[in-house]
């Protein structure tokens, strides 16, 4: 029995599919896990747990759920490892650009950074200075991991979860990992064949436009300004959470990201459009560029 469904969560369309006895119930349970992450971690929801933390943690420590705690710990570990290139405290800047909501009680500006986020005993969160945390660069990956874990526990023979480019799968047969052409998102390019794993892609082709150009949702913590996503970056890693976060670090500084990729046994594929319509692909595993007709690796 095969079941496949798609529903809107976490600012994107989440597709979940599974094959095996009880696939319908397994897929429903997987969507429940994604919905839980959405309710806990979406800053677009004024009553989410993360929004409550953003309103309160500068005044008094806030006890949080296990799910939010796991994601915050992972975000802080990546911030330390990247010297702050991955920083979830940029929400106020995104809100100022009109890319995140300005709910009542949230800081309208913040001069803090990831170092002002304190993770205290008892799963409590405190801010040394007012912060507006945004988990848009990591929460989708966590939701994908939770959903796939549930499908595996339910005994599915094949399963896949795709949350707007953050995806993971396992199965009995090989499948093509495809990404959109960086200059023409209607075209799909096959990158590799895989049976199981996790991957995430960051690109600027769906960024909102302002003043005649795209407005990138990726903030460079070093400058406080949007970083142009003029290339497509796919990271393959052990978890979708890790792949999701690493795409942002690779986008900001590919050279510095190489150490992190190696440390996590992860692989980055950077696609850059050429004037003649072809695509050059840099594979961190091969350390050599390829042309579009050589995308199979």
Rg on CA atoms, Å: 19 Å
CATH superfamily grouping of one domain:
ApbE-like domains
What's the total number of strands?
18
Largest sheet: 9 strands, antiparallel
Overall residue-averaged pLDDT value: 91
Backbone structural class: alpha+beta
The CATH first-level class of one domain comes to Alpha Beta
Describe the structure.
- This protein is of the alpha+beta class.
- Among the domains are: 49-127, T-fold; 174-297, ApbE-like domains (T-fold, Roll).
- Helix content is 29%, strand content 29%.
- The protein contains seven helices and 18 strands.
- α3 (66-81) runs parallel beside α6, α5 packs antiparallel against α6 (240-252) and α6 packs antiparallel against α7 (254-263).
- Mean pLDDT is 91; it is low at 288-297.
Topology:
Layout: E1 2-9, E2 12-19, H1 23-41, H2 49-56, E3 62-63, H3 66-81, H4 91-96, E4 117-120, E5 124-127, H5 139-153, E6 158-163, E7 166-170, E8 175-180, E9 188-194, E10 197-202, E11 209-210, E12 213-214, E13 219-220, E14 225-226, E15 232-237, H6 240-252, H7 254-263, E16 267-273, E17 279-283, E18 288-290
Antiparallel strand pairs: 1-2, 2-6, 3-5, 4-5, 6-7, 7-10, 8-9, 10-15, 11-12, 13-14, 15-16, 16-17, 17-18
Helix pairs in contact: 1-5, 3-6, 5-6, 6-7
């Amino acid at each position: 029995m095969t079941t496949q469904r798609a529903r809107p969560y976490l600012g994107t369309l989440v597709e979940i599919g599974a094959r095996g006895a009880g696939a319908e119930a397994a897929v429903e349970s997987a969507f429940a896990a994604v919905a839980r992450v959405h309710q806990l971690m979406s800053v677009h929801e004024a009553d989410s747990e993360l929004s409550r933390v953003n309103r309160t943690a500068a005044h008094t420590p806030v006890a949080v759920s296990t799910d939010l705690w796991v994601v915050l710990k992972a975000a802080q570990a990546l911030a330390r490892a990247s010297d702050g290139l991955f920083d979830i405290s940029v929400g106020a800047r995104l809100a100022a650009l009109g890319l995140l909501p300005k709910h009542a009680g949230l800081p309208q500006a913040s001069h803090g950074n990831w170092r002002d986020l304190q993770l205290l005993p008892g799963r409590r969160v405190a801010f040394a200075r007012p912060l507006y945390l945004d988990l848009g660069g990591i929460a989708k990956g966590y939701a994908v991991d939770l959903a796939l874990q549930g499908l595996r526990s339910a005994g599915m023979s094949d399963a896949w979860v795709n949350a707007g480019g953050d995806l993971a799968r396992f199965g009995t047969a090989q499948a093509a990992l495809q990404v959109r052409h960086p200059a023409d998102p209607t075209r799909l390019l096959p990158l590799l064949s895989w049976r199981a794993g996790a991957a995430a892609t960051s690109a600027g082709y769906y960024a909102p436009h302002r003043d005649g150009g795209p407005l990138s949702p990726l903030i460079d913590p070093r400058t406080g300004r949007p970083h142009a996503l003029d290339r497509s970056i796919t990271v393959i890693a052990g978890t979708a959470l890790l792949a999701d976060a690493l795409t942002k670090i690779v986008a900001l500084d590919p050279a510095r990201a190489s150490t992190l990729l190696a440390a996590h046994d992860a692989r980055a594929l950077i696609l850059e459009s050429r004037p003649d319509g072809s695509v050059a692909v840099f594979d961190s595993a091969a350390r050599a560029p390829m042309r579009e007709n050589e995308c199979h690796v």
